[in-house]
Structure formats: structure tokens, C-alpha cells
Amino acid sequence: MTSPQIRHRVDPRAERAARTILTGQRPRLLRQPVATATVNERRRDPRAIRDAALVQRQPRPRYDWARDAASAGTTAAVGVAVANAPVIPLQVIAEPAYLVLAMLDRPGGEVSEHDRQVIAAARLLADAGGGAVVTVATGSGEALAEAGSDRHVALPDGWADDYVPERRAAAAAALMASLSPRHILFPDSPDGGDLARRVAAAAGERLFAGVQSLGPDRATRQSAGGSLETGHRPTRLMTVAADAFAPLDGVRHEARPLDLATPVVAGEEVLPRLGCARRLAVDPDALSLSETDFILSAGNGVTDWQSFAELGEALGATRAGSRVVCDAGHLPRERQVGASGTVVSARCYLAFGIAGAPQHLQGITGVKHVIAINTDLHAEMIKRADLSIVADAQEIMPALIRLIRERRHD
Amino acid sequence: MTDAAMGNVAVLLSIGRHPVSGRSRRAATDAQALEMALALRPRRLTAIHAGPAADAEALRAYLGMGLERLTLLVLPEGADPVEALITHLRHLAPSLVLTGRQAEDGESSGMLPYLIARGLDAAIVPDVVRIGPADTPDATYGKADLVQALPRGQRRALTVTGRLIATVHPSAPPARASAFGPARRGVIEPVAAQAAADLFLSDCEHRPWRPKPKLMRVKRGGSALDRLKAATESKSGKGQLLINPTAEAGALAIYDNLVEQGILP
Ligand SMILES: Cc1cc2nc3c(=O)[nH]c(=O)nc-3n(C[C@H](O)[C@H](O)[C@H](O)COP(=O)(O)OP(=O)(O)OC[C@H]3O[C@@H](n4cnc5c(N)ncnc54)[C@H](O)[C@@H]3O)c2cc1C
Ligand SMILES: Nc1ncnc2c1ncn2[C@@H]1O[C@H](COP(=O)(O)O)[C@@H](O)[C@H]1O
Question: How far apart, in whole angstroms, are the C-alpha atoms of residue A126 and residue A76?
């Protein structure tokens, strides 16, 4: 008999109050008990609470105990039927108190990880006082909504491919004059850092380069060759160091085109002093493995080294191998991929006859796209790969060389 | 190969700092800039440092690379070197100024070359690895061909008109070793210069740098199950699998996939 009021089903006082009718001269009692009065509010019904907290039954039950009981009944019913897809609320900043510009690189038209980090840093500054983030890049702003952009200014599409730092700097200066943003952030990448320095030199303002941490009233960076941390109030022009801020996710902003009084093709009148920019062909085998973008790799399953060399040349890929291959002397030691070799971050990794030992897979964790050719269906490499081909490497290699030569001639 | 376009070259040299011991030394990319300038064999080569006279000894490592003399613009401690350098360079009127990429000591913001370019009204090209006079017939008036280093080992060629400031990338040809004898014999010429104190820098607070923990890509949102999966599972390609195709079919699949990824044209 520890807590009798919980164990009792009926609350006689409440029951009596519910049956009382106060309309006449004196209170009267109804004969029949009223339905609601039978339930004691203080009594817990664990089954009902459990049902109300259930948000998902499949693949296994999930409960949300923090939900309020009022809305529980309805959403629980939906939650069972629909695999709950969280809808991210759209955040609108209609009347921004000030603007924070994020000048993105957008190399090759895609929003890079570093660009997202810059937007995240810009959000830190904007959210501190009701400001809005304005992204400036080539292409449209749709892809930037999920990264946290409120407004977008599109630069001419052609600038994505050409090397036009002087034009970009002139456009940035024009935006700076017309929007008078409180801060302008750039990625501290080769292109973004160059642009930021051009803008800072032209504006005669101090650039706070390579920001490592940021708050509304303090920014820090590394100085003196990385031995000191320098702190200051956030200045107007800053570049954001790589991997210093986590990109946002789970947010949705408008990224709506900003209507400008004047279009941002300022810089047409700038007479470019840099010209005839063109990419040079580089010898893929002269690049270090950690730098290159496309690796052709061989393992113990490769015996036809002549074809392997020819294939590397035909593909324009940097050659590499597993440890077994380098131990056997087929490739030099600095071409070994893996834990005791080089950790690579190529965009594409084409592996012939590699089993995929843990020490090897450690070396390719940063690779985006893996293609594996192996005779063994159960090799780890086949599981890791995005395109797996169970076949003999010695047959695929010559066929691929032939195919490439054929396509190149017509 | 001494050319009219490359006749008058200036190199800006700062004092470097060893990342571990903290001792002063020649700065790595500045030494590469000097190497590039020496390899051009210009008619006139001026090497300039701006800073306190007390730092002169650290500059001898540059003289040891085969430089006969070096100009030291004497400034008080904590002064901004930009104005002094611009004034001196206006007077010299070089067609090419080579600098390092980022200083190893002081603010090391990499702004100095840009400010100099602004002051001299010159073009600026960052991350240069090779430089030479343009091989076009009208090369008489200052045109230079450059090769610029891009990320991932790529290279870009450029042509620049007029006066040029170039910053040197670490993958430019390595600097020659510094020899002791020439380093002793070389002459450091002090030149008095005017400079204002750098107010911004004295407004900043400095403290020793402490390494920060590496940023992890934590996925927020989704269910607990999704987050656990994202944190623990290694990325395994849920891709196509072809079992025992003919050699031609296999090769075609690889080729198409590479084209799709934008690796092959
Ligand atoms: C401390 C330590 C560090 C190590 N560090 C590294 C490292 O950095 N890098 C590294 O690579 N290894 C490293 N290793 C070695 C690693 O454990 C494996 O031994 C090695 O990666 C295996 O190489 P492999 O896949 O080429 O050869 P194997 O394991 O012999 O696999 C060959 C594969 O080729 C397939 N095959 C055979 N014939 C054909 C054919 N005709 N066509 C197609 N496929 C065929 C087979 O099915 C098999 O899957 C390390 C080991 C240790 C102990
Ligand atoms: N005091 C100085 N005297 C001469 N050159 C300098 C000086 N400071 C910087 N530089 C040059 O400018 C480059 C970039 O410097 P910074 O902008 O300070 O990072 C350096 O690599 C040097 O080539």
C-alpha cells in the first residue's frame, strides 16, 4: 500500500463533483455516474503512454518520450503508416538586419566541401544578429539552399571554366559597393584566397586570412608560420581555412536570387593583364599518388605488366599497386597504396587483381569512386567497389586498351 | 638568354622561421623565388628585405646562394614594410618582382605581394612554378609566359603583359644550398626608410597555437539508427556487379563508367 491514489481506479470526489448539478435551489446529484468522471487523472496508463510515444513500428519500434500528449494520437497513427520522412522547415529571413557575403569557388560547377564550410561560417556571423547570407558564385543557387544560403547572386556561367581572377575581383568590389555587406568571406583555397587578396588590396582593407574559429565578436587565425594564434574582432574581409567549420546539414534556406539594381558583370571594362590561360598536359606518372585524381592500381592478380603499363598510358592514369606488387619489384616503393604506403584521395581508383586487405583498404578510404576487377567474387575489394567485375585481369586489360584506342580514332 | 623583358628583376626576401626549433633561417618559398631569379640570369637583380637592422645576420643564408649584395631597408621593430618596399621598388622600376607565397614569421597573411602589385600598378600571378619571356615575335615589350601550379598537381600556362609580380609555389624548382664562404663575403647594404607602425597587428592578441581536434563529419538529423549507420559503416559501394562477362563487355562497362564519372572525355 505504498501509493493508494495511483492504484485506485475511482476518485470518489471527482465522481461526485461530476454528478452534481448546481442549477436549482440546492445541489442535486445525478443517479448515473458520468463517463469521464470514472477516470482518475492521476492514474498512469502505461499502455496508452507507450502507444502515444510510438513514432515508428518498422523496422523496429521507436519511441519519442518528449512529445506532448495532445498531438500524440494523430501523429502516432501517421508515423506507423509512413516511414517518417523529417520535413526540414524553411527558414526565411525576410528583412535582414545586415548582409554577409560568401564568395564561393564552385570549382567545375559543383559546390565543394570547402564552399559549404564557408557558408557555415557565414551563418555564424549572420545568425548572431538577424543577418542574411548572400552567396556569390557561378550557376544557380538551388544547390546552395541546403547549405544555408538566404540569397544568391549568380556570376556569368563562362567564368566557371575561364581563369578570370581580375574580373571576379572587380565583380566582388562592385557587389561590395552596392550591397555594403558587414562581412565578406572567401574560402582560403588557391582561387578563393587569390580573389580575397585582390579584393582586399583594391579596397585598401585588412584581410584576416585563414580564419580558424569565428564568433560574433572574435575571429582567430594562425600566424607566424602556424606557431601563434592571432585573435581580433571579425574584420570585413576574411578567408576561411579548410576544415575549420562543419558544413551545415538539416537546414533549408531560401537561396532566392537577389535582385540587384545593376547586374554584376562589372569587370567587362577591366582590361585583363592575364591572358591565354590554358591547362597543360601533365605526365600522370610524374605526379605523387596523394596528388593525383585517377589511379590505375595492380595487385597480385596482375601478371601481364606490359598491358598494365600500356593501359596506364592509354587512360592517362597514375600507376600504383598493392604491397605485394611493390615487394616483388614490379613498381617502385613510392607507388604503394595502403597503410604502409600512400593514403590516396583520388577521384577514381581502378583496381586490377587486388584482394582488398584491410591495410590496402585503409589507403583508399578517401577515394570517391572505386572500380574493381577480380576473379574472386568474395574478395573484399569487390564489396568496396562501385563497379565490380568478376573476370580475369589479363583479358580485361587488353580489351580495354583496344576499346580506348578505337574510341579515340573515330 | 638575357632578354629585354626580363632585364630588371627584384626579389623580396623575408626571414623564415624553422617550424620546430623556431630558429630564424631563409624562408623556403622566398629561397625558391631567389633561385628562380638567379636562373633567369637578368641584367640586374636586386634582392630586398625590409625590417630591423638586427635581423641582418639571418639574411646571410640568401647571400650564400650566390648573391653578391642585398638591400636592407631599415625599419623600426613592428613597422609595416609595405610602404617602404613600394617606394623603393618605384625607384628601381623592375619588370618582374618575385616573392614567396606566405611569410613564415609575422602576420603571414600572404597580402604583401598583392599590396605591392597595387602600389606599382602591376599584374599579380600567384603560385608560379616556371617563368620565361614570351616566345612570340612581339616580345620586345614586357610579355612573359608563366606556368602556374594548381591543386592536385595540375598546371596552367598564362601570358602576362606589362610589369609583373609573381609569388612562387613550393613545387617550383628547389633552392640551391647556401654556401658558407659566399654568405660571409656577401654585402648587406642598409638603406634608411620611412615606415609607420602597424596598428592593426598591435591591436590583435597573440597566444601560442594549440592544435585543434580534427573536424569529424558528424551527420545530424535522421533517426538514431541512421546516425549509427553513418558513423560506423565504412562506405561500401552498392554498385553494379558483373559476373564473368566477356572481355569486351567488361571493358565497355569500365569505359562507360569512367566517361560517366567525367574521368575520360
Ligand atoms: C603491417 C602490414 C602493413 C601492410 N601495408 C600494406 C599496404 O600499405 N598496402 C598494401 O597493399 N598491402 C599492405 N599489406 C599487405 C596486405 O595485408 C596484403 O597482403 C596485400 O594488400 C595483398 O595484396 P594483393 O591484394 O595484391 O594480393 P593478394 O592477396 O594475393 O590478392 C590477389 C587478388 O587477385 C585476384 N586474382 C588472382 N588472379 C587474378 C586474375 N587473373 N585476374 C584478376 N584477379 C585475380 C585474387 O582473387 C585475389 O583477390 C600490409 C601488411 C602488413 C602485415
Ligand atoms: N619584410 C619583408 N621584406 C621583404 N619581403 C617581404 C617582407 N615580408 C614579406 N615579404 C615577402 O612577401 C611574401 C609574403 O609575405 P606575407 O604577406 O607577409 O605573408 C614573403 O614570402 C616575402 O617574399
Answer: 37
